[in-house]
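ok so for the tutorial part 2 we go from a plain amino acid sequence to predicted structure tokens. step 1 is just haveing the sequence, like this:
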Amino acid sequence: MHCHKSYLVNLRKIKRMTENCFFLKNGESVPISRRCFSESERIYKLFLAETSGNLQIIP
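step 2 — the prediction. this is what the tokens look like for a chain of 59 residues:
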């Protein structure tokens, strides 16, 4: 999933999401651009619902 012009993120590697970045399971953080936030949030929520039903979005 593209969350920023310079980044592509594997949904399976995301630990949690905030309003401006993804925190990955390896401890790294990846920024989410304002332009991509709504679509990134929608895709991430859908992924969580399909795989675990556990939403971890922190405003």
